[in-house]
Give the backbone structure.
Amino acid sequence: MPAQARYGPGLRDVLPAFLGLSLCVVGAALLLAWFHRTLGFGGLVLGVLLLTVVGAVVRVLRRPVVRRRSGRYTPAEIAVLDDRALRLATARILRRDGWHVTDVSMRDRPRLYARDAQGRRLDVTFRPVETPAEERNAPAPTLRWAAVRDDTASVVRVVVQPGVLSPADLRRASRPGSVRLVDGRRLRHWANGATLEQLGLL
């Protein structure tokens, strides 16, 4: 596991937002100058009012995006996540709760590694998201359980499975020191603001 991973956004992550903000500021200044030159002081006032209305509309429209980026999802949003979006949502939720998250996915095997300020470590894996038709036509699947080596015994293994878990998995997960399972019900509560401790997983 990468214990010395680099956390935080890099230049490549913040550059698009910085460029977009710069373009908005320059565009607003040019628009106000045009209004002032064309209509005088009244045009300047009109331009300010117009920019205020546009800003308010954009803020309302962006509110769900900002909420999701901060790690909070509604049950309806969780229900429509595909595999890639589920991994991204889980990383955001962990960061919301104070975990430092590193994506250690390999090809078609999504996986996250997380560490908190207390030194606790999580190894988060995912079960593929099933379509509604697959959920209706298939029995509750049984997860493949991998043995935990001694050198990873201090790492809490978490499996995120948005659907329904089989009775065998639930019995296996109830044993002390076993893998923590985040099924659809727990995932909805977690995404809505509950922590892993409140869900009884830590």
